[in-house]
Amino acid sequence: MKKDLTVRFVGSAGDGLVSLGLLFGKILKMHNFNVLGFRSYQSVIRGGYNSYQIRFSQNEVLSVGEDADIIVLLNKHVTKLHKPLVNPNAMVIYDEDIIDLDEFDYPENIIKLGIPLAAITKEISKLKVLKNIVGFGAISHILGLDDVLIKEVILEQFGKKGEEVIFTNYDALDKGLKFAEEKGWLPIWEKHKAGKARQMIITGNEAIALGMLSAGLKFYSGYPMTPATSIVHYLTKHLPKLGMIVKQTEDEIAAIGMAIGASYCGARAATGTSGGGFSLMTELIGMAGIQEIPLVVINSQRAGPSTGMATKTEQADLFQVYGASQGEFPKVIIAPSTVEDAFNVGVEAVEIAEKYQVVVIVLLDLYLSEMNATVRKLNMKRNNMRFNILENPDDNYRRYEITETGISKRTVPGTKNGMFFTGSSERTETGTSIASTLAGLPDTLPIRVEMVKKRMRKLDCLIKELDPPKLVGSKDAEITLVSWGSTINIVKEAILQLEEEGIQANHLHLKYLTPFHADEVEKILANAKRTLIIEQNFTGQLRDFIRMKTGFFIEQKLLRWDGEPLVTSQIVEKVKEVVKNE
Amino acid sequence: MSEEYSLSLKDFESSFRPTWCPGCGNFSQWRAIRQALIDLEIPQEEVVLVSGIGCSSHMPNFLKVYGLQTLHGRGIPAATGIRLANPKLTVMVYGGDGDIYGIGGNHFLHACRRNVDIITIVSNNSVYGLTTGQASATTPVGTITRTTPRGSIENPLNPISVALSAGATFVARGFSGDLKHLSWIIKEAIDHRGFAYVDVLSPCITFNRNQTFDYYRQKVYKVEDTGHDRENFSGALDLGSQIFIKDKIPIGIFYQIEHKTTYEERDFALNQGIIPAQAPLDLTEEQIKIITEEFY
């Protein structure tokens, strides 16, 4: 019996693919499986060719899997398009009322499981999407899922829509189950029952939103852009209960501008977008930097340049965010790796921003933003503190006082005796502009020098607080794999597979890109037998970044930029090729 | 309150003298803003003056309040964020025609329709002063500037008509040459519940030889003297359009309506009296339950 299974629903936009995937994920989670779901889609609202793939196991699920064990075809159009992706041993479930599988020349050995979905659905209701639930009933039988448990989940999902909707769904489920049973389809797994552990199943975007909320986020503004938009959707849903402001603005410039205003006022604030929107935000990132206003900016990367491929993943904005805005100022860049890590980074980003009065850029990517995964309990109950806010300033208060750490305490509007001016120009300790009001005065030159040093010192302090990167795996491994962001678990899975084949590889995964632990990274790489960079871009941005920061050149590269997430077998093959060729 | 309030014009001055050219129209606005704040007895620490980039945008340097100078055109978004984070504050945006009608035009449009309770004052001199004299969005056709040496070929924007059409609930125009009238308008604008917008005809004595103090003095008349009802929208539109079609330029309060709800009153958090800037940071057990229920 297999350790884990991969199921792929294939259909068009409008077929209810995503809700089916989410529902299925939840049901599997209730059976105590670990689950990872990911959709592959096009930027269209109706039609097209989309799929939703779910992999589940009682062990940890590290990637969304490659070949699907069970494929569910929702319409005729996609049946033709999907042919090259069907593995020879797959089980194919399809609506035999609309699809004649023999027409399509699918691999010979597949198990064809046709169901008259349209006919069965017609008996129950006029609602065509119900056929998804009928099909689902049949899959449940094959997977040995507990129908009582499934009905519980259906009740939770559709409970608000009224009794009739629930019972129609139950009916559809039962009809699907019964059909499979009567046809004599055999369950491929033994019967599963509900587990005790209460896991959550959430996306990367929801996780980072939860993290920021746990850290006291009170203001979020954004302009719709895939794949960051679902952060706004999630926050907006709950805002009346949270006492916070969530604003959709006229553009990304206003989105970051409002967040800066709110943060200047003392509210913990963030904004989020993808690369295109980030371009528009760039100028104000520099302003928040010189004004030392705390701010979290999320960039969920998608395939670029320009509009690129709106619904596809990539890791090609590293240099964009690293160089964002003119001049030099301290900027923090963190790249979360998993859904759980996205939560932790959400908390961390909000805290670092306020404590150090800096802009913290969080680099997500579409794969992480949209993957839907089971996670262990997240620690949302915290004792949040305020950092470096002065409530009773004395007569000597200087907003931009030069300090050893580079951090100066700030006052917020409304505070008596705390008034100060801050502009977007260089300034004195009290805030007066040395670019206009005091321009040209000779004694402003040392002020400029000290102000730049003061701001940059913050990063020297911060880096001491951050966990340095560690080498995971055997020190004597034949090769060191280097990665960042959402690819972490795919690399991990590849390393496990290589081990089974007798090849030892270890792993250096980077999370904090600025400030950067250059000494630690260099030491690890210098001791490696061979090095391979793994990234989702064309040029190898992290590879160049590491070379720039450490002087170390990572010789081998595995790069993917077609918009789909890397898969484990690609890494395994590449490693074998590198190791054997020497 | 009024017995305790003793702030003077001097109290609102920062330690720096304005760096504008002597005779600049911005000086009277510097005074009018302070006068209006004093008349309304607003404490200094409850005022945030936000600006962009340009000669006029230097204003927060010269006032003793919370002053935030942003980037070119970006005063309105920052001010909106400030006001939403703490609705107890009096939040004003101050900038020029290049700043608010040009590069920040999109924000201006949306601020008008949103009706957040902030005040936007535009020092309108029909020229880019700080970059030494180029055409702006309100430069009349045919004007010779350094970027239009053969005369401007673009029609100017009529900001009053734009603001009215976009839904601003307080629309006025003042003149830097009439301080008393200007102070009164700004006072009414601050007192207005909702988005208040004041265009100020403010001559640039260095780079604009056409729209001078004398030019305006001969043309302006006060709408208050004509019996205009400030709740009359079509009357306001008519007055607003006169700047181009007649030789007379109306100043005063063109339009004010207060029955429309403000953004703050419609917002789900703010209408419960929550001040995001001061709200507790920790999630309660109940909040955690509500926001995670859908993931189980």
In words, what does this structure look like?
The complex is a heterodimer of chains A (582) and B (296). By secondary structure, chain A is α/β, with parallel strands linked by helices. Chain A is 38% helix and 20% strand. Chain A has helices at residues 17-30, 76-81, 117-124, 130-143, 147-158, 163-182, 204-214, 229-242, 252-264, 275-291, 318-322, 339-356, 366-370, 445-465, 488-500, 518-526, 541-550, 568-580; strands at residues 4-13, 34-40, 47-57, 70-73, 91-95, 111-115, 200-203, 219-222, 245-248, 269-273, 295-303, 309-313, 331-334, 359-365, 372-375, 421-422, 471-472, 479-484, 505-510, 512-514, 531-535, 556-559. In chain A, strands 6-5-4-1-3-2-15-7 form an 8-stranded mixed beta sheet. In chain A, strands 8, 9, 10, 11, 12, 13, 14 and 20 form an 8-stranded mixed beta sheet that branches. In chain A, strands 17-19-18-21-22 form a 5-stranded mixed beta sheet, sandwiched between helices. In chain A, helix 8 links the parallel strand 8 (219-222) and strand 9. The N and C termini of chain B lie far apart (54 Å). Chain B has one domain: Thiamin diphosphate (ThDP)-binding fold, Pyr/PP domains (Rossmann fold), CATH 3.40.50.970. Chain B has helices at residues 26-39, 75-85, 97-103, 105-114, 159-166, 179-191, 213-219, 233-245, 263-266, 285-292; strands at residues 47-51, 66-69, 90-96, 119-124, 127-128, 134-135, 170-175, 196-201, 220-222, 249-256. In chain B, the strands form 2 sheets. An 8-stranded mixed beta sheet of chain B has the order 2-1-3-4-8-7-10-9, sandwiched between helices. Chain B has a two-stranded antiparallel sheet with strand order 5-6. Chain B has 10 helices and 10 strands. In chain B, helix 5 runs antiparallel to helix 8 (233-245). The interface between A and B is large, with 70 and 61 residues.
